[in-house]
Amino acid sequence: MHSDSGTFTFDTTAGLLVEWGGARRLGVVLAEWFAQRKLLIVTDRFLHQSGLLDPAMASLQSAGFEITVFDDVVADPPEDVMIACARMGRDASVDIVMGFGGGSSMDVAKLAAVMINSDQSLADMYGIGKVTGARVPLVQVPTTAGTGSEVTNITILTTGATTKMGIVARQLYADRVLLDAQLTTALPPLQTAATGIDAMVHAIEAFTGKLRKNPLSDLLAKEALRLMAANLVTACTDGQNRPAREAMLLGATLAGQAFANSPVGAVHALAYPLGGHFHLPHGLTNALMLGPVLRHNMQAAAPLYAELADVVLGASRQSVSAKATSFVTFMDDLMNRSGAPRRLRDCNVPADSLPMLAQDAMLQTRLLMNNPVEVTEADALALYRQAY
Fold it and tell me: What pTM value is reported for the model?
């Protein structure tokens, strides 16, 4: 599905450090990487108050960093949170930004690093490649194994009561990322399941994307899926299991690198309205829509699903059709075993809201154009009904 000429582009973060417990020596690490010392840490209140950030802050302070903490990030961050974060950074004259937390904190950190020194309006940044100017240095430290936001060039903001919009720009790639899986051990089973499934959806949709799929994104997506398929249930049932947590975090990051270059499709397009209207966690909404969309895409994506079946189930001599069916069954079973809710009705989504959700999903043209099979409004309604 990529260019016959073999021409493609691939972009990613400049550097990754993978180190269990690395957050405890973050000051030493950042002092080696950057000359800047006025640091804005972007996080959420729960994480800040939980003490998870404390060892990192102590290390940073002892290394001479002057720290400002913005901890007003919420899930599906609205524009006013984004603007307040940039204002705080500007008022403190910060010259380096670090996202510390889940996808929302890292998304806000990305754009804050741009807005601190920019007079471009937020409204002018929405879309692809609209950001002008440079940013201050940016570091990302994920505390969940899910969004892949640490290595993507996308920020998603809530722009109205229920609508979300994306900003995609090369400036949003971080300079450095620390993957410290020890930070993820406190994540409860349900969040572990939802964020893990989110990352697996990233890998699947990157591998089956229609427009920009390429050999590098394929390699990353397959390895991400292999790591996470083998470790998701263990991470959910035994949160302190170090190998499982390390595999999930690395897998989520590899999936992030894959979908930053080969964008996601209809699973995400149908998941966004569920998050916007009912404030369900993003990973959970992906989990709810994955099975129906996999089956809808089967007519075009069966050969690709067959390849993924070999990754998660081992190579076999079955037909392409049988392998593809086995892959969809495997993913359904894995989500069942993860403990995440499986039906829209279990998440208090009213049946009479489905037509409205289908209408809203049609607005996600950036994602739907990349899906291997066309999704009409009637299709979207049928998919929501299947998930109900």
Answer: 0.95
